[in-house]
Amino acid sequence: MQLLLIASEVFPFSRTGGLADVMAALPESLVRLGVDVTVLSPWWQSLHGQPTEVWRGSVPHGGRLQPGAVRVGEVRAAGVRYLFLGTPDFERPGLYAEDDVERFLRWGNLVLPTLQSMGLTFDLVHGHDWAAGTVVAHARAAGLRSVYTIHNLQYQGRWNFAEGAAWSGLPAAMLPDAEFYGDLNLMKAGLVFSDHVTTVSPTYAREITTREYGEGLEGVLQARDAAGALTGILNGLDLDRWNPAADPDVLPMTARSGKPANVAALRAEFLLDDAPILSAVSRLVSQKGLDLLVEALPDVTRDWNVVVLGSGDPLLEAALKGWAQHPRVRYVSGMNEALAHRLYAGSDAFCMPSRFEPCGLSQMISMRYGTLPVVRETGGLVDSVPSDVGFRFSGGGAGDLSAALHAARLAWDDRPGWQARVARGMALDFSWEASARRYVDVYRQVLGA
Known about the structure:
Synthesizes alpha-1,4-glucan chains using ADP-glucose. By secondary structure, this protein is an alpha/beta fold. It has helices at 18-32, 100-117, 133-141, 161-168, 186-193, 202-207, 218-226, 259-269, 290-300, 314-323, 337-346, 362-368, 379-384, 398-413, 415-427, 433-447, and strands spanning 2-6, 36-42, 52-57, 70-77, 80-86, 124-128, 145-150, 158-160, 179-180, 183-185, 196-199, 230-232, 277-281, 305-310, 329-333, 349-352, 372-376, 391-393. It has 2 domains: 2-236 and 433-447, Rossmann fold; 259-427, 3-Layer(aba) Sandwich (Rossmann fold), CATH 3.40.50. The longest helix is centred in the first third of the chain and has 18 residues, at 100-117. The N and C termini lie close together (10 Å).
């Protein structure tokens, strides 16, 4: 099976969130199952590492581009071929920007013609999130089978319909099916034109067929579900990257040893008192619910030291900076990979009060590092956090989070019981193998094999 995976970012070459982590681990797991995998992503100017240029030229759908303006770079690693398609739209610092939908409409228009010009063919296209929606639509127009995965339905890639239709290069007859309240919607294009839709946890697959979580696309998703073409597959975790016994950023840890030393090191690093440590590593956006933690801090700081790493909403950043004057609160702005590892290893509990969570990886990482998650019962958090390991709450208010954290604090006082929870969490299997097999099952179903 020759598979083409399409995504806007791929770790370690480019990353802003969990999508890149999935695109690092899933391809390697598929290769181990005998799939011939090519991953295609934009050739961002800020790409980490330098691909080898293997093709440069013009393609039939690139009429607005000068000859030679399209180029493709290649990296091969762990049996996976990574291709990076570059156009002038991506020759600027950073990754995402305000004109991303326009850029990805044009980029998606170029993908299949470019690969054809290179002499490459595939059995199946697997597009990830809205940036790949146009590619999936072009695959349908070309008679090529496809799977489309929703990582976060909230981000849909919408643009003015008239302009978007012109940039998309799609046949006119297909365009009305991608229309959404006067816009061209790239997420909807992926949902409508793919042969099968997946999302990144079973619970989220059920949730998005409802008005509460469907983001206006619940009708489309209900139709796909009724046709047997919607499947939830829980993401796995890169166990080599997140290995507490061999992680260079933390003190070596197993289920039987090393946790107290990491907690002590984090306590010393942030000059914290002897109360247990609660951490959060997150984008500061409404979805993640960290505003609930800020609102609950007057109660929470009676029981916990709190360390937050992340950036996003300026108002939430300002509130955390203000709270950082409190002797039990620390806030570090931005994203710091090494510090994130130390927080997972050195905290007692991990706070994840998401309003919705398609899958989430942080709760899996925290359990692997002996840190018990406190989570809202939604999406992948339901599917991955057993109630005899972490602490789950169903309400959506700061008081609900505060009550869950108080229950966790009482449980922390029972040291044998807490250690039993830690041991159960560290023993959970979040490897990609089972998830990759389920994807292969979907691929075979789509191909009629």
